[in-house]
Every structure is written in structure tokens, then in C-alpha cells.
TrEMBL record:
Top-level taxon of origin: Bacteria
Domain PHB accumulation regulatory: residue ranges: 70-108
Protein name in UniProt: Polyhydroxyalkanoate synthesis repressor PhaR
GO biological process entries: regulation of DNA-templated transcription
Listed Pfam families: PHB_acc, PHB_acc_N
Record domain PHA accumulation regulator DNA-binding N-terminal: where: 6-65
Length: 157
């Protein structure tokens, strides 16, 4: 059985949830996402996967109301990565970072009841280690050398 919830978008711009056999709104799709339900949205006109487009539409609605998540500066920086040599690496970096953040948020919620100060200290130390590793991987993939690695190469010569 497919774990993704199939939603069909019809030419009349309506969304149809095949699991519950009814039309739904963009707010309903947002609720599914917030409940960690894996979804796939398909355009019935050509059977193309338009999930990203629908999710971006939800983000646009969220950004236009209330407190935005992305600043104009941040959005401009993200746009500059499109078409560049680091686009794929940047996308993986963002995805890894968001996954890590979500996992840590879950761990923090679970361990908060134990000892809040110990949990915060442990989480901070773990963050420093993980971010250092991510930064090294990112820079290594961009072909930057680290001081220690350069020294090792010089010693080998």
C-alpha cells in the first residue's frame, strides 16, 4: 500500500482527496502537512506531480499573513543559488539542516520534562558538533581545504 495520500487537482482548480473521497481546500492540505501526512498532488489534466507547487502556494499564503518565516534578504540569497554550481549542494544542506532541527525539536520536547538545564546543555553541545560537521562537509564539497588537511598535504611532500 502506498503511504502517500493522493490528492487530485482538477481543471476547475479544486482539490480532491482520494482517501476520504471529497473535495478539500488548501487549508485542509496544510492541516495534512502539519499532521506529518505524506501527500502527493497530481494534476488530472496531464498526470504531472504538482506537490511542490501546492506546498509553495501554502507557504506563500503563510508568508503573506502574520509573522513571515523568510526575510527579503534570506529569499534573495536563496534565489541567488538557483542555476549556480552549488544549487544541489545548497538544497541538500537546507534539507539536512531542517531535518536536524526537527529532530532536535522533538528530542527537546521529550527531554524537557527530565532536567531542562541538562537537556539544553546536551542539545547545545550536540548542535555545535553537528554544525561543525555539516560545515566541514559543505566546504569539502565546495573543494575548500582545511588548515589541518593542507598541513598534512604539505608534510607529505
Amino acid at each position: 500500500m502506498n503511504s502517500e495520500r493522493l490528492i487530485k487537482k482538477y481543471p476547475n482548480r479544486r482539490l480532491y482527496d482520494t482517501e476520504v473521497s471529497r473535495y478539500i481546500t488548501l487549508s485542509d492540505v496544510r492541516a495534512l502537512v502539519m499532521n506529518c501526512t505524506s501527500i502527493k498532488v497530481v494534476d488530472t489534466a496531464n498526470d504531472s506531480d504538482i506537490t511542490r507547487s501546492i506546498l509553495l502556494q501554502i507557504m506563500l499564503e503563510e508568508e503573506s499573513g502574520g509573522e513571515p518565516l523568510f526575510s527579503a534578504t534570506m529569499l534573495a540569497q536563496i534565489i541567488r543559488f538557483y542555476g549556480g554550481t552549488l544549487q544541489g549542494m545548497f538544497a541538500r544542506y537546507l534539507e539536512t539542516s531542517l531535518d536536524l532541527f526537527a529532530k532536535q525539536q522533538q528530542e527537546m520536547t521529550q527531554s524537557w520534562a527530565e532536567n531542562p538545564f541538562e537537556a539544553m546543555s546536551r542539545m547545545t553541545q550536540k548542535n555545535v558538533e553537528i554544525w561543525a560537521d555539516l560545515q566541514k562537509d559543505f566546504l569539502r564539497a565546495a573543494r575548500f581545504e582545511f588548515g589541518g588537511e593542507r598541513k598534512k598535504k604539505d608534510d607529505a611532500v
